Structures are given as C-alpha cells and as structure tokens.
Amino acid sequence: MGEFSSDIQVRFRDIDAMGHVNNAVYATYVEQARTEYFKEVLETGLDSVSTVLATLELSYERPILLEQSVTVEIDVPEIGRSSLPMEYEIFADGERAATAESVQVFLDPETEKPHPIPDRFRERIAAFEDLDDAAGGQSD
C-alpha cells in the first residue's frame, strides 16, 4: 500500500491515562497525513480546496506509545466523480498499529454541494497513484 508516507511525531499530549496514544488521536494522525498528501500530490493546501470529510473509519490493531516513531501510509484506490476515497496504514516502529479509510468529497465553493474533482487534481492523483482514470471518475 501507499507510495505516499508521512512521519508523525508522537507528542506527550497524545498520550492518555493508560500510557498510550488516545484512540481519537489516530484520526488526527490520518488528518495530518492527508493534509501532507494534498500539499505534495495536489500542490495545494487542503485549506485552499473546497472539500469535506464525508466518512472516516478506523480499525485499531495495537497501541502506540510515546517513544515510538509513527508513519502513516496513504493509498488512493480509485477516483470518484466528486469523491476521493483514501486508505491508510498507521505504523508504530514499523509494525502496523491501525488501518483507516476515508472519503473526501469535493464541493462547489458557492453552493457547497458535491462538485466534480477538478481535472488538474484528478490528473495529478491518477499519475501519482498510477491509476487509469480514463473513465473520468464515473464511479461515485
């Protein structure tokens, strides 16, 4: 999975009373990696693209501790008409700690309704992920 990876620094504030990264913080790690993906692959900040996170699912496999190094890998399996599904693997010291899936939906900035992914973004994602996007995102 994933040509794209993001290294995450575990902060002391991420740790809960049980001595490991709180389960809610995993979503923050995924968000941080997704933000970096947009910067690197789409060459724009997630904050300057009209999108909304439609779904996020996390599956936990093992705890992450303060002293561990964390890496989040991202894979985009397909490109929808207006939706961008993303798959994540979260590793702690090289061992998988969790997996996640999300769907980012592109919006028309004026109506805030789903809007086709701009061609320039579609082309960059397809090239980076080595996807055949000849259908132009017909599966949404």
UniProtKB/TrEMBL annotation:
Gene3D superfamilies: Hotdog Thioesterase (3.10.129.10). Keywords: Hydrolase. GO terms for molecular function: hydrolase activity. The keyword Hydrolase applies. Its EC number is 3.1.2.-. Pfam families: 4HBT_2. InterPro entries: 4-hydroxybenzoyl-CoA_TE, HotDog_dom_sf, YbgC/YbaW. Signal peptide: none annotated. It is an enzyme of class 3 (hydrolase). Belongs to the 4-hydroxybenzoyl-CoA thioesterase family. PANTHER family: 4-HYDROXYBENZOYL-COA THIOESTERASE FAMILY MEMBER (PTHR31793), NOVEL THIOESTERASE SUPERFAMILY DOMAIN AND SAPOSIN A-TYPE DOMAIN CONTAINING PROTEIN (0610012H03RIK) (PTHR31793:SF27). This is Acyl-CoA thioesterase.
